Amino acid sequence: MFEAMITLCLSLGEGPCRDHLLPGYEAQTQAACQVALSESPPDVSIFQGLQAQGVATCQPVGEALNVTEVASGVFVHVGRIEEPNASNRGDVSNLGFIVGETSVAVVDSGSARWIGEALWRTIRARTDKPVSHAIVTHMHPDHALGAALFSEAGAALVAHDSLPRALADRQANYLESLTSLIGADILLGTRAPVIDITVTEVLQIDLGARVLTLQAWPVAHTGNDLTVWDTATGTFFAGDLIFDRHTPALDGRLTGWRAVLRELQGLDIERVVPGHGGAALDWPLGSEPIARYLSVLEEDTRAAVEAGTRLGTAVEEIAQSERSLWQLFDAYNPRNATVAFTELEWE
Protein backbone atom coordinates (compact mmCIF):
# COMPACT_ATOMS: atom_id res chain seq x y z
CA MET A 1 0.00 0.00 0.00
CA PHE A 2 1.19 3.50 -0.89
CA GLU A 3 0.18 6.96 0.37
CA ALA A 4 0.84 10.58 -0.53
CA MET A 5 3.37 12.53 1.55
CA ILE A 6 4.78 16.02 1.41
CA THR A 7 7.64 17.56 3.38
CA LEU A 8 6.62 20.78 5.08
CA CYS A 9 8.96 23.08 6.96
CA LEU A 10 8.61 26.02 9.27
CA SER A 11 11.53 27.52 7.38
CA LEU A 12 13.12 26.02 4.28
CA GLY A 13 16.50 27.26 5.39
CA GLU A 14 16.55 26.17 9.02
CA GLY A 15 13.53 23.92 9.55
CA PRO A 16 12.21 22.15 11.44
CA CYS A 17 10.64 19.94 8.79
CA ARG A 18 8.34 16.92 8.88
CA ASP A 19 6.81 14.61 6.30
CA HIS A 20 3.03 15.10 6.33
CA LEU A 21 0.45 12.56 5.21
CA LEU A 22 -2.10 13.74 2.64
CA PRO A 23 -5.14 11.51 3.23
CA GLY A 24 -7.25 10.11 0.43
CA TYR A 25 -4.56 9.10 -2.06
CA GLU A 26 -3.96 5.58 -0.75
CA ALA A 27 -3.51 2.93 -3.43
CA GLN A 28 -2.19 -0.58 -3.80
CA THR A 29 0.56 0.55 -6.17
CA GLN A 30 2.81 3.58 -6.30
CA ALA A 31 1.72 4.25 -9.88
CA ALA A 32 -1.97 4.36 -8.92
CA CYS A 33 -1.20 6.72 -6.06
CA GLN A 34 0.73 9.02 -8.41
CA VAL A 35 -2.17 9.02 -10.88
CA ALA A 36 -4.53 10.08 -8.08
CA LEU A 37 -2.15 12.91 -7.13
CA SER A 38 -1.90 14.16 -10.70
CA GLU A 39 -5.67 14.03 -11.25
CA SER A 40 -6.47 15.85 -8.00
CA PRO A 41 -3.48 17.86 -6.74
CA PRO A 42 -3.59 18.55 -2.98
CA ASP A 43 -4.22 22.01 -1.60
CA VAL A 44 -1.25 22.62 0.70
CA SER A 45 -2.39 26.16 1.48
CA ILE A 46 -4.28 24.68 4.43
CA PHE A 47 -0.91 24.38 6.19
CA GLN A 48 -0.65 28.06 6.99
CA GLY A 49 2.81 29.22 7.97
CA LEU A 50 4.54 26.12 6.56
CA GLN A 51 6.53 25.85 3.35
CA ALA A 52 6.65 22.85 1.05
CA GLN A 53 10.04 21.29 0.37
CA GLY A 54 9.33 19.91 -3.08
CA VAL A 55 6.07 18.35 -4.23
CA ALA A 56 3.88 15.56 -2.90
CA THR A 57 5.11 12.06 -3.70
CA CYS A 58 3.83 8.53 -3.13
CA GLN A 59 5.64 6.43 -0.58
CA PRO A 60 5.05 3.13 1.22
CA VAL A 61 2.55 3.46 4.07
CA GLY A 62 4.15 4.80 7.24
CA GLU A 63 3.60 4.45 10.98
CA ALA A 64 0.23 3.23 12.25
CA LEU A 65 -1.18 2.93 15.77
CA ASN A 66 -1.71 -0.32 17.62
CA VAL A 67 -5.36 -0.94 18.45
CA THR A 68 -7.44 -3.48 20.36
CA GLU A 69 -10.87 -4.61 19.13
CA VAL A 70 -12.86 -4.28 22.37
CA ALA A 71 -16.18 -5.22 20.72
CA SER A 72 -17.25 -6.12 17.21
CA GLY A 73 -16.12 -3.27 14.96
CA VAL A 74 -14.99 -1.11 17.90
CA PHE A 75 -11.25 -0.41 18.10
CA VAL A 76 -9.27 1.39 20.80
CA HIS A 77 -5.72 2.69 20.89
CA VAL A 78 -4.33 2.92 24.42
CA GLY A 79 -2.13 5.94 25.10
CA ARG A 80 0.63 5.94 27.68
CA ILE A 81 -0.06 7.00 31.24
CA GLU A 82 2.56 9.71 31.10
CA GLU A 83 2.88 13.42 30.70
CA PRO A 84 3.57 14.40 27.07
CA ASN A 85 7.30 14.34 26.28
CA ALA A 86 9.70 13.90 23.38
CA SER A 87 9.85 10.14 23.96
CA ASN A 88 6.10 9.45 23.79
CA ARG A 89 5.54 12.30 21.29
CA GLY A 90 2.29 13.22 22.99
CA ASP A 91 0.68 9.79 22.61
CA VAL A 92 -0.91 9.88 26.08
CA SER A 93 -4.66 9.38 25.63
CA ASN A 94 -7.04 6.68 24.44
CA LEU A 95 -8.46 7.01 20.93
CA GLY A 96 -10.80 4.85 18.94
CA PHE A 97 -12.97 4.23 15.93
CA ILE A 98 -16.22 2.44 15.19
CA VAL A 99 -16.93 0.72 11.86
CA GLY A 100 -20.48 0.64 10.50
CA GLU A 101 -21.79 -0.88 7.30
CA THR A 102 -21.29 2.30 5.28
CA SER A 103 -18.84 4.51 7.18
CA VAL A 104 -16.50 4.94 10.14
CA ALA A 105 -16.57 7.30 13.12
CA VAL A 106 -13.38 8.31 14.94
CA VAL A 107 -13.52 9.15 18.65
CA ASP A 108 -10.67 11.49 19.64
CA SER A 109 -7.47 11.87 17.67
CA GLY A 110 -4.52 12.66 19.92
CA SER A 111 -2.41 15.69 20.70
CA ALA A 112 -0.59 16.12 17.39
CA ARG A 113 -1.17 15.72 13.68
CA TRP A 114 1.19 12.76 13.47
CA ILE A 115 -1.16 10.79 15.77
CA GLY A 116 -4.14 11.58 13.57
CA GLU A 117 -2.11 10.43 10.57
CA ALA A 118 -1.15 7.17 12.29
CA LEU A 119 -4.77 6.57 13.32
CA TRP A 120 -5.88 7.17 9.72
CA ARG A 121 -3.46 4.48 8.54
CA THR A 122 -4.76 2.08 11.17
CA ILE A 123 -8.30 2.60 9.90
CA ARG A 124 -7.30 2.23 6.26
CA ALA A 125 -5.56 -1.07 7.07
CA ARG A 126 -8.90 -2.46 8.30
CA THR A 127 -11.52 -0.92 6.02
CA ASP A 128 -11.86 1.21 2.90
CA LYS A 129 -15.14 2.70 4.14
CA PRO A 130 -15.06 6.49 4.41
CA VAL A 131 -14.55 8.20 7.74
CA SER A 132 -17.77 10.19 7.95
CA HIS A 133 -17.33 11.69 11.43
CA ALA A 134 -14.50 12.55 13.79
CA ILE A 135 -15.81 13.16 17.30
CA VAL A 136 -13.94 15.26 19.87
CA THR A 137 -14.94 14.32 23.43
CA HIS A 138 -13.61 17.54 25.00
CA MET A 139 -11.21 20.43 24.48
CA HIS A 140 -8.02 19.03 26.03
CA PRO A 141 -5.20 18.91 23.48
CA ASP A 142 -4.37 15.22 23.93
CA HIS A 143 -7.86 14.42 22.62
CA ALA A 144 -8.50 17.22 20.14
CA LEU A 145 -5.46 18.36 18.20
CA GLY A 146 -5.12 15.45 15.77
CA ALA A 147 -8.63 15.94 14.38
CA ALA A 148 -7.86 18.34 11.52
CA LEU A 149 -6.39 15.44 9.50
CA PHE A 150 -9.83 13.80 9.39
CA SER A 151 -11.45 17.02 8.25
CA GLU A 152 -9.03 17.07 5.32
CA ALA A 153 -10.15 13.51 4.57
CA GLY A 154 -13.78 14.63 4.32
CA ALA A 155 -15.08 13.79 7.80
CA ALA A 156 -17.44 16.09 9.68
CA LEU A 157 -15.92 17.14 13.01
CA VAL A 158 -18.35 16.85 15.92
CA ALA A 159 -18.09 18.26 19.46
CA HIS A 160 -20.00 19.71 22.41
CA ASP A 161 -21.63 23.06 21.68
CA SER A 162 -19.29 24.78 24.15
CA LEU A 163 -16.07 23.34 22.73
CA PRO A 164 -15.30 25.75 19.85
CA ARG A 165 -15.15 28.82 22.09
CA ALA A 166 -13.28 27.02 24.88
CA LEU A 167 -10.69 25.62 22.48
CA ALA A 168 -10.27 28.95 20.71
CA ASP A 169 -9.50 30.59 24.05
CA ARG A 170 -6.83 28.00 24.92
CA GLN A 171 -5.38 26.74 21.66
CA ALA A 172 -2.42 29.12 21.61
CA ASN A 173 -1.39 28.06 25.12
CA TYR A 174 -1.91 24.39 24.28
CA LEU A 175 0.28 24.58 21.18
CA GLU A 176 2.98 26.57 22.97
CA SER A 177 3.06 24.08 25.85
CA LEU A 178 3.17 21.04 23.56
CA THR A 179 5.95 22.58 21.49
CA SER A 180 8.01 22.80 24.66
CA LEU A 181 7.07 19.32 25.87
CA ILE A 182 7.31 17.16 22.74
CA GLY A 183 9.28 19.33 20.31
CA ALA A 184 8.49 21.68 17.44
CA ASP A 185 9.45 19.09 14.82
CA ILE A 186 7.02 16.49 16.19
CA LEU A 187 4.20 19.02 16.54
CA LEU A 188 4.72 20.53 13.08
CA GLY A 189 1.47 20.79 11.12
CA THR A 190 -0.72 20.47 14.20
CA ARG A 191 -3.57 22.94 14.42
CA ALA A 192 -6.82 23.27 16.30
CA PRO A 193 -9.79 21.60 14.57
CA VAL A 194 -12.67 23.56 13.09
CA ILE A 195 -15.87 21.95 14.33
CA ASP A 196 -18.65 21.31 11.78
CA ILE A 197 -21.41 19.92 14.02
CA THR A 198 -22.05 20.89 17.63
CA VAL A 199 -24.17 18.97 20.12
CA THR A 200 -26.26 20.79 22.71
CA GLU A 201 -28.10 17.78 24.12
CA VAL A 202 -28.27 14.50 22.15
CA LEU A 203 -27.34 13.69 18.55
CA GLN A 204 -27.52 10.37 16.73
CA ILE A 205 -25.14 9.41 13.95
CA ASP A 206 -25.90 6.49 11.61
CA LEU A 207 -22.83 4.67 10.28
CA GLY A 208 -25.03 2.21 8.41
CA ALA A 209 -26.95 -0.28 10.57
CA ARG A 210 -24.98 1.18 13.50
CA VAL A 211 -26.35 4.20 15.31
CA LEU A 212 -24.18 6.13 17.74
CA THR A 213 -25.76 8.29 20.43
CA LEU A 214 -23.75 11.39 21.31
CA GLN A 215 -24.62 13.25 24.50
CA ALA A 216 -23.43 16.64 25.71
CA TRP A 217 -23.08 16.89 29.50
CA PRO A 218 -23.24 19.78 31.99
CA VAL A 219 -19.95 21.10 33.37
CA ALA A 220 -18.06 18.14 34.84
CA HIS A 221 -14.50 17.13 33.91
CA THR A 222 -14.59 20.18 31.62
CA GLY A 223 -17.30 22.50 30.38
CA ASN A 224 -17.60 20.59 27.10
CA ASP A 225 -17.69 16.84 27.77
CA LEU A 226 -19.28 14.70 25.06
CA THR A 227 -19.83 10.93 25.18
CA VAL A 228 -20.40 8.36 22.44
CA TRP A 229 -22.59 5.29 22.98
CA ASP A 230 -22.53 2.43 20.49
CA THR A 231 -25.72 0.68 21.54
CA ALA A 232 -25.11 -2.19 19.09
CA THR A 233 -22.31 -3.49 21.32
CA GLY A 234 -23.02 -1.63 24.55
CA THR A 235 -19.70 0.20 24.24
CA PHE A 236 -19.52 3.70 25.72
CA PHE A 237 -16.70 6.15 24.94
CA ALA A 238 -16.57 8.32 28.04
CA GLY A 239 -13.69 10.59 27.15
CA ASP A 240 -12.15 11.95 30.33
CA LEU A 241 -15.33 11.60 32.33
CA ILE A 242 -13.72 8.26 33.25
CA PHE A 243 -10.06 7.77 34.18
CA ASP A 244 -8.40 4.42 34.85
CA ARG A 245 -5.10 4.33 36.81
CA HIS A 246 -4.21 7.83 35.58
CA THR A 247 -5.07 10.41 38.27
CA PRO A 248 -8.27 12.21 37.22
CA ALA A 249 -7.86 15.80 36.06
CA LEU A 250 -10.45 18.35 37.19
CA ASP A 251 -10.89 21.26 34.78
CA GLY A 252 -14.58 21.93 35.36
CA ARG A 253 -16.75 21.49 38.48
CA LEU A 254 -16.21 18.78 41.07
CA THR A 255 -19.85 18.63 42.14
CA GLY A 256 -20.93 18.59 38.50
CA TRP A 257 -18.56 15.74 37.68
CA ARG A 258 -19.86 13.66 40.58
CA ALA A 259 -23.46 14.27 39.48
CA VAL A 260 -22.69 13.24 35.89
CA LEU A 261 -20.85 10.15 37.10
CA ARG A 262 -23.85 9.05 39.14
CA GLU A 263 -25.99 9.36 36.02
CA LEU A 264 -23.52 7.35 33.98
CA GLN A 265 -23.50 4.62 36.60
CA GLY A 266 -27.22 4.12 35.99
CA LEU A 267 -26.86 3.54 32.23
CA ASP A 268 -27.21 0.04 30.78
CA ILE A 269 -23.65 -0.16 29.42
CA GLU A 270 -21.58 -3.28 28.77
CA ARG A 271 -18.17 -1.61 28.74
CA VAL A 272 -16.64 1.85 28.92
CA VAL A 273 -13.62 3.18 27.05
CA PRO A 274 -11.93 5.61 29.45
CA GLY A 275 -10.01 8.66 28.30
CA HIS A 276 -6.88 7.24 29.94
CA GLY A 277 -5.97 3.77 31.18
CA GLY A 278 -7.18 0.40 29.93
CA ALA A 279 -8.78 -0.11 26.53
CA ALA A 280 -12.17 -0.94 28.07
CA LEU A 281 -13.62 -1.34 31.56
CA ASP A 282 -16.52 -3.46 32.74
CA TRP A 283 -19.46 -1.33 33.86
CA PRO A 284 -20.37 -0.13 36.43
CA LEU A 285 -17.38 -1.79 38.14
CA GLY A 286 -15.01 0.42 36.16
CA SER A 287 -16.53 3.54 37.70
CA GLU A 288 -15.71 2.66 41.28
CA PRO A 289 -12.11 3.99 41.52
CA ILE A 290 -12.89 7.41 40.05
CA ALA A 291 -16.12 7.67 42.07
CA ARG A 292 -14.13 7.00 45.24
CA TYR A 293 -11.41 9.51 44.32
CA LEU A 294 -13.89 12.30 43.55
CA SER A 295 -15.75 11.57 46.78
CA VAL A 296 -12.54 11.80 48.82
CA LEU A 297 -11.54 14.95 46.97
CA GLU A 298 -14.83 16.59 47.86
CA GLU A 299 -14.89 15.38 51.48
CA ASP A 300 -11.33 16.49 52.18
CA THR A 301 -11.83 19.83 50.46
CA ARG A 302 -15.01 20.60 52.38
CA ALA A 303 -13.25 19.70 55.63
CA ALA A 304 -10.36 22.04 54.77
CA VAL A 305 -12.72 24.88 53.89
CA GLU A 306 -14.75 24.43 57.07
CA ALA A 307 -11.56 24.33 59.17
CA GLY A 308 -10.36 27.60 57.64
CA THR A 309 -7.24 25.95 56.23
CA ARG A 310 -5.26 28.16 53.86
CA LEU A 311 -5.25 27.02 50.23
CA GLY A 312 -1.50 26.41 50.12
CA THR A 313 -1.68 24.06 53.09
CA ALA A 314 -4.91 22.39 51.99
CA VAL A 315 -3.49 21.48 48.58
CA GLU A 316 -0.76 19.45 50.27
CA GLU A 317 -3.30 17.52 52.38
CA ILE A 318 -6.41 16.99 50.27
CA ALA A 319 -6.96 13.41 48.94
CA GLN A 320 -3.55 12.18 50.09
CA SER A 321 -5.14 8.87 51.10
CA GLU A 322 -5.54 8.20 47.37
CA ARG A 323 -1.89 8.81 46.51
CA SER A 324 -0.77 5.16 46.23
CA LEU A 325 -3.75 4.22 44.07
CA TRP A 326 -3.11 6.45 41.06
CA GLN A 327 -0.29 7.20 38.62
CA LEU A 328 0.85 10.80 38.05
CA PHE A 329 -0.73 11.74 41.38
CA ASP A 330 1.77 14.47 42.23
CA ALA A 331 1.24 16.09 38.82
CA TYR A 332 -2.55 16.20 38.94
CA ASN A 333 -3.87 16.03 42.50
CA PRO A 334 -2.55 19.47 43.57
CA ARG A 335 -4.31 21.02 40.58
CA ASN A 336 -7.51 19.14 41.41
CA ALA A 337 -7.34 20.26 45.02
CA THR A 338 -6.88 23.87 43.95
CA VAL A 339 -9.86 23.77 41.57
CA ALA A 340 -12.04 21.96 44.12
CA PHE A 341 -11.08 24.37 46.93
CA THR A 342 -11.88 27.39 44.78
CA GLU A 343 -15.24 25.91 43.81
CA LEU A 344 -16.36 24.83 47.27
CA GLU A 345 -14.98 27.87 49.08
CA TRP A 346 -17.47 30.08 47.26
CA GLU A 347 -20.34 27.62 47.12
Automatic annotation (TrEMBL):
<feature type="domain" description="Metallo-beta-lactamase">
    <location>
        <begin position="92"/>
        <end position="276"/>
    </location>
</feature>
<dbReference type="InterPro" id="IPR030829">
    <property type="entry name" value="SoxH-rel_PQQ_2"/>
</dbReference>
<comment type="similarity">
    <text>Belongs to the metallo-beta-lactamase superfamily. Class-B beta-lactamase family.</text>
</comment>
<dbReference type="GO" id="GO:0017001">
    <property type="term" value="P:antibiotic catabolic process"/>
</dbReference>
<dbReference type="Pfam" id="PF00753">
    <property type="entry name" value="Lactamase_B"/>
</dbReference>
<dbReference type="InterPro" id="IPR050855">
    <property type="entry name" value="NDM-1-like"/>
</dbReference>
<dbReference type="InterPro" id="IPR036866">
    <property type="entry name" value="RibonucZ/Hydroxyglut_hydro"/>
</dbReference>
<dbReference type="InterPro" id="IPR001279">
    <property type="entry name" value="Metallo-B-lactamas"/>
</dbReference>
<protein>
    <submittedName>
        <fullName>Metallo-beta-lactamase-like protein</fullName>
    </submittedName>
</protein>
